[in-house]
Amino acid sequence: SFGIVLYVLVCGKIPFDDQSMPALHANVKNGLVDYPGWLSSECKHLLSRMFVTDPNQRATMREVLNHPWMIKGFNGPPENYLPERKPLTTPLDPEVIHAMQGFNFGSPESINTELTRLIESEEYHRAVKPFQREKGLPPPAKDAEKRRRFGFDVYKRRSSGNSRDTLTGPSSEALQLGNDPMKPFSPLVSIYYLVKEKQDRDHAEMGRDQRDVRDREKAKEPEVLPEIAPPQEAHTNSAVYEMPGDKRTG
């Protein structure tokens, strides 16, 4: 979708178009794109890398953001303003689960059950391990338990070639997720992140609004001047300092 959006922005038309729906589907599946002749070679190369039909061969986000056409005229890739995301763990936030009902995923109970199954799965743990290693995070408790429980089976599984590939090579999920849990592992996981981030923004904005209201109310309050106590009554000195027979001076 990023490639399609970029194509529309630079070319002013959609990349796949045909009067025949079967032909249109064939063009999309085969990645047949018509590039205008006036398109620069760098831009064409970037788009062609984004329109590769094989996900494993398609340009990664890192490659796209560091492409010469993308950083032309700048000192480096664009800044990433996305909020930091960490791998999901249980228990899940019930407020987020409740809000996810609006996406037709089912009842809160079914959403919680399915999400829990996903994030406790071996595939999810395997996918987030690179991120945990990079950030220095401890592995989930379930991983440690599995290693203790099934440590013996590791040697048995190594005897088969396919099992060796599974143990030593990254899984397809890990390749897709890489060391970034923001990348899609499941639509349910992605929606959970989005809903939670929206709620966090709303809560932060609500807090700012409440502070603004308090500040405005405080500004409307009349200024109260401090009360200053009156000075104590002055006492005159009645003593006479003239010598007897002298004229009074005061």
Task: Tell me briefly what this model is.
This protein is mainly alpha-helical.
Question: Can you put this structure into words, describing what you see?
Answer:
There is one protein chain. About 15% of the residues have low confidence. The protein has 12 helices and no strands. The chain is 54% helix and 0% strand. The protein is elongated and about 135 Å long. By secondary structure, it is mainly alpha-helical. It starts with a helix and ends in a 30-residue tail after the last helix. Among the domains are: 70 residues, Transferase(Phosphotransferase) domain 1 (Transferase(Phosphotransferase), domain 1, Orthogonal Bundle); 99 residues, no CATH class.
Helix proportion of residues, in percent?
40-55%
Uncertain stretches? 143-179
Largest sheet: none
The dominant shape is elongated
The CA-CA distance between the termini, in Å, is 103 Å
**Class based on secondary structure composition and strand pairing:** mainly alpha
Query: How do the helices and strands follow one another from N- to C-terminus?
Result: HHHHHHHHHHHH
Q: What's the average pLDDT?
A: 75
Number of strands: 0
Strand content: under 5%
As a whole number of angstroms, the C-alpha radius of gyration is 35 Å
Count of helix runs? 12
Family: Belongs to the protein kinase superfamily. CAMK Ser/Thr protein kinase family. NIM1 subfamily.
Pfam families: Pkinase (PF00069)
Domain Protein kinase: 1-70
Keywords: ATP-binding, Kinase, Nucleotide-binding, Serine/threonine-protein kinase, Transferase
